[in-house]
Every structure is written in structure tokens, then in C-alpha cells.
Design a protein that fits this description.
Strand content: 25-35%
Number of strands: 9
Number of helices: 6
Helix content: 10-25%
CATH topology: 3-methyladenine DNA Glycosylase, Chain A
CATH superfamily: Methylpurine-DNA glycosylase (MPG)
Order of helices and strands: HHEEEEEHHEEHEEH
Structural class: alpha+beta
Radius of gyration: 16 Å
CATH class: Alpha Beta
Largest sheet: 9 strands, antiparallel
DNA sequence: ACAAGGATCCTCT
DNA sequence: GAGGATCCTTGTT
């Protein structure tokens, strides 16, 4: 069952947390999302923070579409646009667990095996064979790259986002990275800590 | 038209 | 832990 567009229309932190456990499918490859980061409309780390540009325009559009960003000239990083149009925000998919199509994933990842295969946003983009031309593709519709309902995680980790030293201190420190507790398929686990009970309650109330 | 730098990854040591 | 790869986007001349 595919996720509906309304899934992505909600608050970006809610979507980032709710995406844990959901599936990404592209052809024979099926991945379970294990780690995400939220980038919000009023966030100095977000690519849309300095207003609409050619690159960030998709984030100002409707939710549930892909924003694939080329980083360091090499890495294709998958984001999913969130919140209603005009509120420019997105969730970065940082890591996944393979569910199907492992042979193809390994081929696309240079024959590697184990967590190194999929723990990092550039690795996820490579495993799904994405590039910037996928920007704008709706993940809630049939065809190409799709987002499907998966198994919800039992417990969740949180921590600061990775690689945003350029952001303002408050944004740099915000615990807007989410991961599945106990999963091997999570990057940079040292800076993550268990979600507090208050955070869990708040998150469930927001659903 | 130009220069700077990046939401990373890999290969060393 | 350090450094290079690699090229697009952006803001500035």
C-alpha cells in the first residue's frame, strides 16, 4: 500500500519521524527507511532558507515529491518534500535497510556488503539509482520511485543533524535527526540518544 | 563570467 | 583522523 500525499503534508518533524520503517521501492529494489533528517521552512540549514531558487523551487511546491540534491559533485541525496505548498521544507533520507533487490543494490554500490551498503544519504541515492532528474517525481503515485507503508519501529533515537556546520547554532544543535533504535542500518550512531518519553508522547499526539 | 563551497564517501594511516 | 574526488548551485563582479 502506497503512502498517500496527505502523509507528507504534515509538520516536517512529524513526517521525518513517521517515515522511519516505511518503504522505498524502485523496480526490484525495496528499502526500509532507518534514518531521516528534517529540514524546515524556518531553518538556516535548509536549502530553501534563502528563498526560492532554481534548485530549491520544488520544496515550495506540493508535498510528497522527490527533491534530489547533488552534493560534492558526486552524491545524489534523496529528500521528500513536506508540508503544504509555499512552506518550503523536506525530509532527507539518510539510511535504509535492504528488503529486496539486494543483488542490484550491491552492484550499484561497488559490490560492498553489510551496513556500509546503505548507511549514508549518498549511498541511498546510489542504491536507488537516483539523480537530480528525479526531482519533482511524486512518491505517492504509481510508477518509478514509490513510498509504501512498512513496519513501524518499536523505539526511536534522536540527535543533531549531520554536516550542517554552516547553520546557526540553534539549528545546528536541534535534535532533528531520527533513527530506528537497535538497527545496524543507521549512520553515525554515536551522536544519537533514545527518544524521551515526553518526545514519544508529543509525537503520538501529533499523529 | 567567476569563485567558493557543499545535508558525502572512500581510501588510506 | 585526514585528505582528495568532483561538479553543480549560488552569489557576486
Amino acid at each position: 500500500m502506497r503512502l498517500r500525499q496527505s502523509f507528507f503534508a504534515r509538520d516536517t518533524l512529524v513526517v521525518a519521524r513517521a517515515l522511519l520503517g516505511q518503504e522505498l521501492r524502485h523496480g526490484p529494489v525495496r528499502l526500509r527507511i532507518t534514518e531521516t533528517e528534517a529540514y524546515t521552512a524556518d531553518d538556516s540549514a535548509c536549502h530553501a532558507h534563502r528563498g526560492r531558487t532554481k534548485r530549491s523551487a520544488v520544496m515550495f511546491g506540493p508535498p510528497g515529491r522527490a527533491y534530489v540534491y547533488l552534493c560534492y559533485g558526486i552524491h545524489q541525496m534523496l529528500n521528500i518534500v513536506t508540508e503544504p505548498a509555499e512552506r518550503a521544507a523536506a525530509v532527507l533520507v539518510r539510511a535504509c535497510e535492504p528488503l529486496a533487490g539486494l543483488d542490484l543494490v550491491r552492484e550499484r554500490r561497488g559490490g560492498k556488503a553489510g551496513p556500509v551498503l546503505l548507511t549514508g544519504p549518498g549511498k541511498v541515492g546510489a542504491a536507488l539509482a537516483l539523480d537530480t532528474s528525479w526531482t519533482g517525481h511524486p512518491l505517492y503515485a504509481a510508477g518509478g520511485l514509490e513510498a509504501h507503508v512498512g513496519d513501524a519501529p518499536a523505539a526511536i533515537l534522536r540527535g543533531p543533524r549531520v554536516g550542517i556546520d554552516y547553520a546557526e547554532p540553534a539549528d545546528r544543535d536541534a535534535p532533528w535527526r531520527f533513527a530506528i533504535a537497535g538497527s545496524r542500518w543507521v549512520s553515525q550512531r554515536a551522536s544519537l540518544r533514545p527518544e524521551t518519553e515526553a518526545e514519544t508522547r508529543a509525537a503520538q499526539a501529533a499523529l
